[in-house]
Fold each of these.
Amino acid sequence: MAALSQSSQTGQDPAHHPVPAEARMGRLSLTMAWWAVCSAMFYIVVGASLALSFGARNALIGMVLSVISYGLVNSVLSRFAIRSGLSVALFSRLLFGSTGACLATLIFFSTAIYYAVFEGSVIAVALNHLYPELVYPLAALAVVLYSVPMILGSVQHWLDKLNGVLLPIYLGGLLVAMGLSISRYGYRPQWLDFGPQIPDAFGWWHCFVAYMGVWILMLFTFDYARFGKPEDAGYHGRWNFGMPFYAVTFLLNGAAGIYLVSSIPHDGALNEVSVVMAILQLMGLWGLLFVWATQTRINTANYYLATLNMQAFFGRFSVRGSYWMWAVAVGVIVYGLMLADVFAYLLKALAYQGIFVVAWVGVALGQILCARNDVATLERVAAFNPAGLFDGVVRRHGIGACLDVFRRWVEQFFRPVDGDSGVRPPGRFVAPQTYGVAVGRVRI
């Protein structure tokens, strides 16, 4: 996201046009911008939560499988995004039609806003915890006020450099937290046994499926990779957006989360706030710096992607506005949601959004691998693409709704994760083949 404002120098709106050659970024700048995504404490908590439910060893196996699958899929998506310069919004027009693509941008910007609310609240809670005189609403306002300018104007030119500085702070802070935990509470070799006394034999599969609920990162990949240079496609597909990134994002963060939660005493149910409190308890003011570094890095991505896709969504309905206007609108929405007690509703909404995200990835792979991808046809696409809409919306959401109604009957076979984690229909595995058949490019 950082330095992505280069596209504004060309006079083209990045939400409505492919990225031209002169607006592409060097591999180091794009790497520093993209790696901001790996530093969310959300990943630490996900790993710990899965270990709590299915056992640490099963969680680690699920993480390894996720690293492999994410790396393979994103290698395909990133190379295509670099080659075409298309955004998720533009590519969705090829998948679902000019009007049908609005659903993709709606889901994308609403999901990015949710993550901005979730991660921004962590900083606000940490500030309020260390400085009680700074009440939570003012702390939340402060977070929004410094987050929005980071994706505006010339600030974006140095934001990749800021993320480059924050990366060692994040990695160093994580190692320091682990070291302090060992120093204060002693090394706990039984952390690998953390979780149920008798783990589920197929717990590793449940953990792997749970990580499929975060496939929104594949859409993040697409919108970032479009700024890469074609000559760097191999590097980005293999390293920047590939397995090394997810080894840090899922495996390193998840393993650290399992160890910290299993070794540091905490009160109440496990959630992101409890992990933050444990880090503040261990590190004090330095812990606040660590939390700020992690959440600021990830929120630069959340705000940028929410703004870009909100602009594209409303632009389709002739509601026009500058990039900075939509950035301010995102900030206002994020602040309002940070003050409202809507987390339970948002988590449930994310479960259904996850169905569409997985469907989008499947249909996108089908389009890339099985169909023609002529960027010049973007202006001539129909309002609706029946092939993409049927596979991505009707079939997938229809199956998801049925499984939600009959979840008690089919949970063990089709949705092996917890009922509150979201619908996980098996159709995701055949999306590329289904779409390929629909467009007539794959023979059965």
Amino acid sequence: MWTDAEASDRALGGELGELGIGDVLALLAGPPELVDLTPLGGAGLGAR
């Protein structure tokens, strides 16, 4: 989130912004990938 249009332009106008936008567009070009995960443990998981 940027405070104004100038800050947005500065953040997205550099080399990092160009590379980042390309990566995002590539991800959005196809359907989402489903990944099944199994929690191994941790706080809030509860006793088995």
Amino acid sequence: MPDKNLLKVLLVEDNDADAHFIGKALSHKKFEVVRLADGQAALDYLLNSEEEIGVVLIDYKLPFVDGLEVIKESRKKGKNYPFIFLTVDSNIDTAVEAMKAGALDFLPKIKGYTGLSDMIEKVHRIHRAIIDKSILEKQLQSRQKMDTLVTLTRCIVHDFNNILTVMEGNISLLLLNDSNFTEQQLDFLKNIDRACGHAVDLAKQLRKINRDLPSEKINIDFYEIAHEVFSLLENTTDKIIEKKLEIESGEFIINANPSEINQILLNLGINAIKAIEERGTRPGDYIKVSAENYIQKNSDRMGLQNGEYVHILFEDNGKGMTEEVKRKAFDPYFTTRTQGEKEGQGLGLTIVNKIVREHKGYIYIESEAGKKTTFHIFFPKRNPKKKQKLKKT
């Protein structure tokens, strides 16, 4: 099993004598050296490896694919490894070409390998600094996008509330004279009234984006929210797309804000149905919600505190996501829609992610292009006997 304390060095060298001397120069305990003897094997390894590689030492002349092509192809595929280019002599043109291709340093073999250890450590530090700078730049860009979002909400939330006040007032007046309506018409009015209630809650959430206010959370039956959202989607979207609710009433109690959970499921549901429609609706299409108990015992990549959680799975069999789309899905303003389309501006999943994190939960996406997509969401679990009602303000 690899020692995580060692710096992994991939040596791509077909000459056994050179490989021996390099191995000897790196024989102390700082490095774990893995050797490959041809360029094609190295390229396959670099493109498919999920292990962290500290530095790649690569010879220029290799069987099948030369060292320069390995560097160029790996960078073209988004694999920016720290390369040290090995050359037979001190030809400056070759070294410059290697640096242009993406190598961070070069070493003529005729100079020997006495300083190789220090060079590897230096290149590794430079590479880490480049990565850290890139991460900071992305965080800054994300912060700037969120600042733009804050400015936008300040402009619209006041007018949005005024419109909702008029709508709610008129619906309330209509409901006072309920004898004038059929039972079906009353159901429609009550659905509109409930939707206005959710819209009011949404306006509150938009204000919270400006002020980072915590939402009020209570113990709720997840089934009740999911049933309400799926009933709405069943009545307002293509009936060919089956809406599967694979949980039972009272089975999963979570500590959450009901309107925000409604918003999460509605966002995911609408996105899923659009993904199916964009691929082309056909019999057998579906969106599905299921859940299971999950116990967090030790820290992992999700960063959840130890305890019991409800693991919610929101699945659709639409067009799936590429790795790039998955990576950017929660970024503000990222959207797969073409410019000019009116179906949203890419804020839905950003808000979903924000809500989940505010509930001390976690969300991630499992998907492949052309296959189904599953959103995995974790919320703290509560005792089934302790359901509560949200206080009205």
Amino acid sequence: MVVGDWGRSHKGKTKTMTFDTTLTPKLDAPTSSETELAKILPPPARNIGFYRRELMPSLGPEVFKPNLDRLVWFSVCAIGALAAFFSIVVLNPAWPVKIALGVFIGVCNGIIGFATHELLHGSVTKNERLQSFFGFFGLMPYLISPTYWKYVHNRLHHGKTQQTIRDPDAFPTMRIYKSSKFVQAIFPFTPGSGRKRSYLYFFFWLSFHEFVAQIYLRFRNGLFDAMDHRRVTIELSAQIFVLGAMLWIAGPSNWLYVMILPIAAQNYMLMSYISTNHNLSPLTNENDPLANSLTVTNHPVIEFFTLNFGYHVEHHLFPTVSAKYAKQIHKELKLKFPDTYKHMPKGEAMRKLYQTSRIYKNSNTLIHPETLQTFDTI
């Protein structure tokens, strides 16, 4: 029993009260009113800032330092791609060797693409001139201006991930599908459409989509108003000139080996990750990477050569951190958010892409616009 002092009464006498401590709730246990209040109030906002505050105490200072090793990857692969190009043109080997060399060029360009992605996020160097220089040549095989990429990818995609219209990488809703002849035309090429041509999607979509956006869509959509259009035009024109000169040197008889096969290989390497990283996820208003992104894992050797690009939830939480440290962040996410952190093997994610449509009925439901069959997002 404990005595509690209520203070003095109006008559100047002390009034006391006794109460049973067995009826008093413990300090660390919520009262019934607190429990009811918790049901009414919304949960704490789960956005990028929230996750960073939870994760950063577990990450060492080395994680946030620039990783110049990616320039080594960039240089080695660039030398390899050029060596294969001139081997095809100068040595003129048998066609099976040319095919192998063409695929090798594409693989080198794909790795360069992963490295350039990190570089333009500032995780390799903070020097913007170096970013622009390496970005120009790193994205040249895809005909993507580095200025365009930094605006569309860093600013729009990362800032508005999986928000309809605002994120250029997000697939459209049924309403947009019905009103857009362009979306209707490209739908048969998308995974989950049920068409045979959809198996070509990963081999061409990145280059095709970004090129069309640069020469046409950016002039018609208000999303691109703040972009430095003049600089984008100059960079893209210069890339076209350099690649045109290389095709002239190679000659039409070698275009299959130095252009078509590399484009197919490098597009597959990047698009098979880009698609699995987001296109199974719901549309979101709050930029919550654990809701709108997916990490896909692969064999350690493949992860090594793709520079851990599949660890995409980690990347959206810390875009300026090199993917070299992605597995460390991956481990912390599994420990701290085991119920909401989404990750799966890449092969499983690829199967799910072809089992579900790419048009959204609503934020959490996908729909096939022709059969009207619906599918849940992950």
